[in-house]
Input
Amino acid sequence: MTDLRYAFRQLLKNPGFTAVAVLTLALGIGANTAIFTLINTLVLKPVSGRDTGQLVSLYSHDSTKPDDDYRAFSYPNFLDLRVNSDVFDDLLAMQPTQVGVTEGEFTRRVFGLNISANYFSVFGVNLIRGRAFLPEEEKQATPIVIVSHRWWQQQGSDPEIIGRSLKINGRPFTIVGITPQGFTGTMPMFVPDLYLPLSFPFVGANEGEASILKRTNHGLFLVGRLKHGFHLADANSRLQVVSDQLAKAYPDANRNQVITVAPIPRLSISTNPEGDRRTLRILSLLMLAMSCSVLLIASLNLANMLLARGAARRKEIAVRIALGAPRSRILGQLVTEGLMLSLLGAAAGLLVAVWATDWLSVSLDRIAPMQTTFNARPDWRVLSATLGFSLLATLFFALGPSWKLARLDVNADLKGNASEDPGKDRGRLFSPQNLLVIGQVALSLALLVAAGLFGRGALNAMSVDAGFRFDRGGYMQLDGGLVGYSVQKMRQVLLELLDRVRALPGVESASLATTIPFGDLTLSEGVQRVGSPIPPPRDATSPALGQAIGANYNVIGNDYFRTLGVTLIQGRDFSRTECENTNGAGVAIISVALAQKLWPDENPIGKRVQLTGLGAPGGGVGRSLGSGARAEKTMEVVGIVPSWKPHLIDPNDGSGIFVPLAQDPRVEVLLHVRPLPTANTDTLLQTVRAELGRFDSNLPILSVKSLRSHLSNCPEIWIMRTGAVLFGTFGGAALLLSVVGVYGVMAYAVARRTRELGIRMALGADRAKVLGLILGEGSKLAALGVLLGLLLAFAVAKAMARFLFELQALDPLIFFAAPVFLAFAALLACYVPARRAAKTDPMVVLRHQ
Output
């Protein structure tokens, strides 16, 4: 306690030093705590209802195809695996979905989960009210629903809600249960609002139970609880036998399919066992490495400050040792002061981390497709990590200076000579203090390069060319399926609605589409030319002879390209008749990229293509959005448009095909509106919304957005923008700490050499030479730090390569600008003490000495 009280008095005695030290540590510890809080939430914190190590996801892989070729499961295969496998204690099935909930006159879309009857028992969870589904209800198309605890709270926590009716997709469903608070199932950040039986997609369908029993209906995701003592390798070995049995019994549906298990993904429901784990691991390690670098820079900076402060305390320490204080006691006292600084910095850093994670949570809620349960409040792991960071910082910055100070020469310091011995380290470029500065500069440069690369990649992403401009126009997302509209009824509603919208003042044009770039849903199809095979490939990246080409797929109305401001490169747009007549001839418009793959040396206009039906939704969640009645008829290519980019990373390389709405009618569409140049987009969208309410108040409007806000709130863009902010913050903090460190060392060096510099000037050295002397020494430190930092930057850039958008990891601009900027900042930090030294009056110095 005596050491603590003395340490506290010492810190209060030097409030300026204490404030700077605490702020420096708050930056380093706060950055690490904030990043660890994210890692804890996304990776480490146990998911409610999971039994660690026993719950696994199942995957089905075609052994004759690439390693990433996986598919979901059918209900009959699920039953076979649940009944016949000796690997699992139990096995559940689920399928994400989107449903429309009607409350009064309004319908809103919520996210749900179709589940097997044993879903909650596999997780070992009991409902707080009501009951779970019965085994017979999971395939009998029973209109019942279980609501989440959060949804129940949002409805007022009515204790009598069990047995009440809830209108879902235009039909009444009976509420039979409520999940416990905090239960999130397979994903810690997102929780469905509603749980429905597996039979839900077929409620009201003519096929009913028969549809879910089709073995070719692959749409379920499976999670199993391994038997006690089973490990992943054991389970996969046993499942190989089960896979062979299913392939022999049902060859048409299960030929070459190999079933395996792997840990459940943390943030997604995926058919691929890699899921999000690899990306999370890489991002976690990269971000933690960046934040640890900031902590290391802060610690090096503080170590230099303590070395400088130690010089002023040498006589005090010498007196205490001369009076009999053991050197071990002196060392313990000095380390205690450092530990107290660390704890104060940790407390401030924890506040910084809480603020940062709150900001991240709020910004995530704005762009997430469903409500989040992002609980980033500090728990024992975060508090333990913060304490660990503070102890690590103490080890970094306090132990070395304390050890040096505790071992000083008592006689020399009592005589008052030690502090005036600047020649001791002069000429030693790699003295302890100089090495600390070189390390700060090197680490700062690596962080600056990382920040520059990610920031430039984010700018590329935010200015991505999606095929049209986002600066004019907007859209409304409509879904008649949420209130039970059939495809035929929705088609009639849309035709009349388009006429009314086009007649509104301020509207230049309006049209319809199924998808939009950077939206929640992406559709793809296999496209092949009709009449002759695809030409031989020109390079290794071209498709093999005769194979269908993957292309992004969109269903649109007439005037669509004009509404989005896209000029056709060749051919014509769809006519109104082609978009309204379901019995018309098949036509299509394709992108330049697809045309070059199909007919590299020919004019594609007038040629014919056919969809192979191999495509599948590439994004979005839930039920089928189309009519399912698309015939495999041939289509004539009537137009060519610029290449289309639906996402930042497009697996189809800009290949796209567009068909008229009449050829593939939809119940969920986007109503695009392009205003006149003199009209305001937001005002016009509200006018259109009011007109829609007058025309059909039952038709759900899921969202109303301008194209500009659509792009700015896109999750992909948000990730890049947030990453740029985080990396930029790290880089800025590193630069600030490095500059302060360089300034501190040079100022201390000038202070120690005041007498020497006075003598030099008295003997004839002019101010320019003194200024050059100090700047030269600082320049050497900065140059060595930059050279070492470039080596670190190369390694960091290679590690970041996969996260950079349309940017080389070794980008010349960044690798030129970052060192120059850092070197300039370091020289500026050297210039201030050098200028002070050059203004030294030699007579005053010599008289004082």
About this structure: The chain has 26 helices and 22 strands. Confidence is low (pLDDT under 50) at residues 203-209, 417-423, 539-545, 614-631. The first helix runs from residue 2 to 13. The CA atoms of residues 296 and 649 lie 35 Å apart.
